[in-house]
Amino acid sequence: MTRHRVVPILLLLAGLGTACAPLGPNYTRPTVTPPPAYRSVTVTPEQAQSIADLPWFEMFKDPTLSALIREAIDNGLDLRQAAARVEEFRGRAALAGSNLKPFVGGEFTTSGVGTGTKFDNAYSGTIFFNWEIDFFGRLRRASEAARADLLGTEWGARATMSSLVTDVAQAYVDLRSLDERRDIVVRTIASQEEWLALVRTLDQGGVASGTEVAQATLQVATTREQLPLVERQIVQVENLISVLVGRPPSAIQRDTVRVTSLPAAPDVPTGLPSQLLERRPDIVATERVLHAAVARLGVAVASRIPVPRIGLTGAFGRVGTSLEDFFGGGDKAEGLVSIGPFIQLPLYDGGAGNARVRIARAQAEQAAIDYRAVILQSFREVADALITIQKVREQIAESEARKAAAAEYLRLTDLRYRGGVSSYLEVLDAQRQLFSAELDLADLKRVQLVSAVQLYRALGGGWSDDELKKLAERPATAMQ
């Protein structure tokens, strides 16, 4: 077949292939009707702002916390693995797209043929190509699925970064809360030891009894028992933070400030629920998984009977009995031209094609359900964080009043005991009341700050494409 006839055939088949619409359903986002506002929050479109729009270094203004988050982004293994996964799926998408293009290769062979003393060499060289024309969209659907997978991994990396940033922030809040808890325990131990010394002195003077000394000793021992527990928890949280930032377990340096700078007011901006569908990484990643599943359903439909696979295959080359003839173009060298279409039409597959379609359709349905489930869970996480912030703030106000009352109760009981009016049991009760009130208040403050961190993540905050791009440009960990 001459060259001037080959080219029109190629163009004609390529045009027919691209003109045929791919089989299978086209992807459309499932209809989701978000509520007009999150529960416990009233937001108008004019007030559609969200703390998720803030970069993490503006959300978390504690210098020590900011430094830890920066270290986690630079060195965190989960995030680097997510970035490497994105690169993997970029390659997968490129590979799927390459199937739509012709394959061109070359081959050079030499062989010897003869009997007895007569032995001749034969040389041949060919350039061959193979091109499957995508008449029914099987290859295009596969490429579409690969691109959706790529987008899903990119949004998955954003979700990983969001989780990493907020995990570090939450662990840091826990650490500072434990610092405060340790201070309360140490301070209470010192106060109770002073009381123990006083009771012993009174006992020696015949004013107090041995029972009161035993009671004071028991109180001190009970409180001291709390200190190793808190110190163990501090080390464990430090170990957690160390791993999150990509270093072996070690101490976390921090200043003496006990309260981090996080917005925890009940009127914290949340934005509109509809924004969550575009902003929150795990929602978008799940949608891309759904898109890929729908595209693979198209692959299954296009692959089953009676859809044929049609393409072109060909070869161009030379054959000669010597290298001189082969490369010099002598008369003894002959040219080879082979080109023609191929058609693969399965006649019977035992129902495998229909089975693959059923599998792909069920997988697409599962992905659609997952998408809706993730959205509902996201709305719930936002609502839970909002109500926690609001109600814990009310609890804190009452807890502060309780702490003040407990402190006053202890002061008055102290005066009454020293004046001989009340028993030491009242003093012990007052000490326990104040100790419990201080610990409960510290825990409520921790819950309030943790809820602010959780709200930030629930709204889709904490990721940055610029940071992920820088991470992707770094050398692979395994190559360092």
TL;DR?
The chain has 480 residues and is α+β, with helices and mostly antiparallel strands.
Question: How is this fold's topology laid out?
Answer:
Elements: H1 3-19, H2 56-59, H3 63-75, H4 77-98, E1 103-115, E2 118-133, H5 138-204, H6 210-224, H7 226-244, H8 273-279, H9 281-303, E3 309-320, H10 323-328, E4 334-344, H11 352-418, H12 424-458, H13 465-473
Antiparallel strand pairs: 1-2, 2-3, 3-4
Helix content: 55-70%
Number of helices: 13
As laid out across the biggest beta sheet, the strand order is 1-2-3-4
Termini distance? 54 Å
Q: Tell me how many strands there are.
A: 4
**CATH class placement:** Mainly Alpha
Low-confidence stretches: none
- Rg, rounded, reads 37 Å
Please give the CATH architecture. Answer: Up-down Bundle
Helix and strand element order: HHHHEEHHHHHEHEHHH
- Largest beta sheet, briefly? 4 strands, antiparallel
Shape: elongated
CATH topology assignment:
Outer membrane efflux proteins (OEP)
Q: Name the CATH superfamily classification.
A: Outer membrane efflux proteins (OEP)
User: Which percent range describes the beta-strand content?
Assistant: 5-15%
- Indicate the mean pLDDT: 81
Judged by helices, strands and strand pairing, the structural class is alpha+beta
Summed up, the domain count is 1
